[in-house]
Amino acid sequence: MASKIKVIHCLNQFFGGLGGEEQAHVTPRLVEGAKGPGMLMQSIFPEVEIIATLIFGDNYVAQKTDAAVEQVLELLAPHFNDAAKDQQAQLFVAGPAFNAGRYGLACGALCKAVSKRYLIPVVTAMSEQNPAAAEYRRDVYIAATSDDVTGMEQAIGRMVPLGINLLHGEKVLPETDHYIARGQRRNYFSSQSGAERAVDMLLAKISGQPVLSEYAMPVFDRVEPAPAIKDLASARLGLVTSGGIVPRGNPDRIVSANAQNFGTYSLNTLDTLSKETHQTAHGGYDPTCANENPNRVLPLDAIRELEAEGAIGSIHPYYYATVGNATSVANAKQFGESIAKKLLADGVQAVILTST
Amino acid sequence: MVKEIERAGITVVHACSIVPISKTVGANRIVPTIAIPHPFGDPNKSLAEEKILRRELVEKALYALTTAIEKQTVF
Amino acid sequence: MVLEKGDILIEDIVFGPEGGVKGHCLVLDQKSLKQYLLKRDERLLTAEISLARPGESVRIICVKDVVEPWCKVSGDKTGEGRHHILKNIAVVTCGKIVGFQEGIIDMSGSGALYSPFSKTLNVVIDITVGADIPPHEHEEAAREAGLAAAQFIGETCRDATPDTITRFPPVEPETISADLPKIVYVYMLLSQGLLHDTIVFGQDAKQGLPCIMKPQVLMDGGIVSANCVSACDKNTTYHHQNNPVIHELNTRHGKDLNFIGVVLTNELVRLAGKEASAAKSIELVKELNPDGVLLSKEGFGNPDADQMMIIRGLEKAGIKTVAITDEYAGADGCSQSLADVTPEADAMISVGNANERIVLPPMDRILGPVEDLSSLAGAYPQSLRDDGSLEIELQGIIGSTNELGFQRLRCREV
Asked: With an 8 Å Cβ cutoff, is B2 touching chain C?
């Protein structure tokens, strides 16, 4: 017989048999073997063996998440790295948490941390209504369950095969593997061309049938407006562009589309940009105008003039440039964070960011 | 990028040609510029005229930086 | 006024001294074609002609345009008469990078699943121009060479007998069925400067659009690609010649829909221009008074704003709209896909995440300027691996996420 899949199961104080609300404050502890729902799991799926059960008070984890996560990672350490083979964990399973909010948050947080630290597949289960589902679905595979414990068998029946598929590196899908879609986009080949699907969708929409958009509109997050600069004449100004203006020859090899980096370029000795000194690396627009006179994208000449006249206190000695062409939001966010750090370190209060 | 810079507490103005994109992405201070290949210029104008135009746009960006706003504003 | 397309199905292509269709084989007189191309345009220094067939270990790089060889055998007016078409043949032009966004076609391996031109018999023309030729003229010379070659090759099937004939009859008011929904197609063309243009019957698409066009006029081959937007969602001339939306609506006309017209519009570089074109497109659609609109796109980023404006306007006017787009969701698929969105866009067709990465195996033969390989959009400095394989984004493959809906690729949430 093939060896069983070694699982660590994770339960709150109630399902772990410690008690109800009065035990919700207890710190995480690790016990040998299966408890409560874990027994059912082993009887439905004889191919898995729960080597240990982690039990925690759900108030404790929900309220002191960071500390609890650290404690759990410590407790689990003996099942990783140098552990004997029969004690090596292969899969981490948490819950099911159904619609219990604190339990769900704990499962999500622990799964995310375990996956990141120990690099094994993790899976949890909860209702789509559980607030933790929205919080953690992007990070963790969450099997969809009913709202309450009546769906225990179904929840285990979904969570375990999902975990095994992930362990084996199988590709999974929300509808066949019954997990909550993770907001990740993946390509595949449809049986119909885009044009055929478009006509079908349009006829369905006209006839009033429900249509399932192939790309649901996202919600972009918002930031509070920063306060106005009171006295620009004494403020330090930074310059940033996504228009791809780089020194001639593109020394950092910023690619023309979906940039992977940004460049940091000196402005110290420059009063203007010219075709001899700078160019665009952006592949998304006709580069002729920008190459002829890069001030058309990053207006350094006008800014220096205003600085000389005293309208601007000073200019941060570098400008930051990347290519906004087909660059993913994740990369842009990361560039923004790094650039902001450098600007803050130099006492910059205001920024002009130019885009094409 | 603009949002991350603002999140760090730096007042930022986004000077861009296609305002709807800037609005969707969530910039707060937006200054509309001329056109995608030449936001701060216009090759149809003389160099001197173009420079005046560019300076005006920069001045507008500075005005936006010094203006208090409560919500997304196109200057 | 009927337009007919007579397809001559070609199964193989060979070089030979006497060009013409022999059964289902096209014989191409390589020497004469080369002489013809070099003689008609003195800007061309060289025009190397090679063949690339499906299944061969061939990679074509820095592809600029693809053209299907046609020959108009009858009819003087636009939108009527008959074309003979060498089906399965494509003229592929390539050459030194001018605008960053030339693309790749692989004739076998994993990349061949993504480009329609991995399945065609390709006449590849690698073009170089004189050193003093400016970028716009370089592109023009390459474009015109592709069109001229397609015409030269198309001419060889003038007297051939088509295997199938497709008719594009005009839509007369009496043929419109009251029981079927009326559909208008809004066809967006990239038009953003000399390297990012589209040409409509010899005119720059920046001017004179939007306008209403009859489908059979459009299918007469009047739209020529003149742009180097990213390879994946650039509509090549071949795509315009074989617009799948027009094909689909024409095929289903009278069966489950009425195809009542096309509004051709552009994608401009200034916001005011975008707003004016969107407003005019919406006005023109309202004049045609359809039940629904199908909207296609070219490119990404700022054209997302054009598409969203049109969708918003049409939906607010009560016209049901479905729009085709591709996505730029990052290599991991976790970023927001579009630069602009609107809540009214509740029926989108997604033809793929162009940021998804793919490893292309090494090929025996590389056609095109190999030194430019890692500068292509969608490629990285480290794209080319030591064993000759290439890791790139789908973005770099010609036609992989075509926003006319030419391909079967689709993107979904997982």
From this structure: no
